Amino acid sequence: MKLPMTLLSLALAASAGGASANPPAPVKNVVLVHGAFADGSGWEAVTKLLEKDGFTVAVVQQPETSFEDDVKATQRTLASLDGPIVLVGHSYGGSIITEAGNDPKVVALVYVSAFLPDKGETTLSLINKMPPASKGIKQTPDGYLYLDPAVFAADFCADLPKDKAKFMSQSQVLTAATAFGAAISTPAWRSKPSWGIVSGSDRAINPDLERWMYKRANSQVTEVKGSSHAVYMSHPDVVVQVIERAAKGPHQ
After folding, report:
1. Residue 131 lies inside a defined structural domain of this protein
2. Is 199 helix (H, G, I), strand (E, B) or coil?
3. What's the sign of the alpha-carbon dihedral 205, 206, 207, 209?
4. Is residue 2 part of a domain?
5. Strand pairing of 29-33 and 137-139?
6. How far is Cα 192 from Cα 188, in angstroms, rounded to an integer?
7. Is the residue at 174 inside a domain?
8. Is 86:112 a contact under the CB 8 Å cutoff?
9. What are the residue boundaries of the AB hydrolase-1 domain, all occurrences included (predicted)?
10. How far is 245 from 70, CA to CA, in rounded Å?
């Protein structure tokens, strides 16, 4: 029996458009991972903006006692959420999410002025590839790294208010030097889409290194000219825009 032409056309249109009629809903979970010499409180402005837009946000407070401990802390936070997640890392946090991002819940990675190591690479090997402007990293006798308070504002957060920068230098989290020497086993960006933010005036990570790493990973790149390393604090609106683009896909 032949269908009338109008009904046949409608049937074909419905069949052809079925896949796109109900596109996957945007991801609504975001996990934020801070970098070295800072803590999770720096994500406050980003968190508030994301929550205002309906996202569920979790902030990792990794101990920075070893790379393994930091990855486990991130995995613990990922496990606390239901549904797909955008995983975000700042600075050394980029190395952490590169390993922890292999969690099946993670559908997208966002690197904020961050390291993006490949298999076998370490944070330190990337630093040595293109050294940063800062020479202020010091080491304690028991093997922990910190950023000299005398240069903290200039090298980490030059575009933040002076009183805020001073307190950050006083409250910075020291990082085990061994964490920078830990090699990546399985880089998540090899199998998942990534977005990268370049801080144009970054003194803690060479901006050219950020550009090179993001290009290698085929990340979608946003550059914030004139921004310090602490772009997530000085330009939270830009960071949120990138995270929300990652939440919309494409996801593998």
Report:
1. yes
2. strand
3. negative
4. no
5. unpaired
6. 6
7. yes
8. no
9. 30-241
10. 26
Structure tokens at 114: 């961050």
For residue 109, give every residue at least 6 positions away whose Cβ sits within 8 Å of its Cβ, in sequence order, or none.
Answer: 86, 87, 88, 89, 97, 98, 101, 188, 189, 192, 193, 194, 195, 246
In a domain, 1, yes or no: no
Per-residue model confidence (pLDDT) at position 22? 53
What domain count does the chain have?
A: 1
Q: Please state whether the predicted TM-score (pTM) of the whole model is above 0.85.
A: yes
Tokens representing 119 are: 């298999």
- pLDDT for 245 beyond 50: yes
CATH number at residue 214: 3.40.50.1820
Please report which confidence band the pLDDT of residue 207 belongs to, taking 50, 70 and 90 as the band edges. very high
Residue 249, pLDDT score: 84
Burial of 25 (0-12, 13-18, 19+ CB in 10 A): exposed
Domain extent, residue 241, equals: 26-248
Which amino acid is located at 216 in the chain? Answer: R
Distance of CA 186 to the CA centre of its chain: 17
pLDDT at 17: 41
Confidence band, pLDDT 50/70/90 cuts, at residue 167: very high
Write out pLDDT tens, residues 44-81. 999 999 999 999 999 999 999 999 999 999 999 999 99
The CA distance from 141 to 161, in Å, is 32
pLDDT tier, 250 (very low <50, low <70, confident <90, very high otherwise): confident
Pairing of strands 220-224, 194-199: parallel
Q: Which tokens is 107 given?
A: 């559908």
